[in-house]
Design brief:
It is a single chain. By secondary structure, the chain is of the alpha+beta class. It has a 4-stranded mixed sheet, with no helix packed on it. 11% of the residues lie in helices and 25% in strands. The N and C termini lie far apart (45 Å).
C-alpha cells in the first residue's frame, strides 16, 4: 500500500488491510491533530488506494527573543 507523506512515498506491506487506519497502524504511522489525511481514516482500501498525509508543520518555529 502506498502512503505519501508531504509528497514522499512510503510503502506499507501487508494484505489484511480493511481501512485507511489499519494501513497507518501497520506502518506505525502516527498522525498529529493538525495533519490531514485523504481519504478519511474509515475509508475502505484496496490494492490501488493511495493514502496522502499532509503534515501541518514540519519545520520548527523560531524562538522569539
Amino acid at each position: 500500500m502506498t502512503v505519501k507523506i508531504n509528497g514522499k512515498s512510503r510503502f506499507v506491506l501487508g494484505d489484511n488491510f480493511t481501512d485507511v487506519k489499519s494501513v497507518l497502524d501497520a506502518g506505525n504511522i502516527t498522525l498529529e491533530p493538525e495533519d490531514s489525511v485523504t481519504p478519511s481514516l474509515t475509508t475502505k482500501v484496496d490494492e490501488s488506494t493511495v493514502i496522502s498525509i499532509s503534515r501541518a508543520d514540519t519545520q520548527p518555529r523560531p524562538r522569539r527573543p
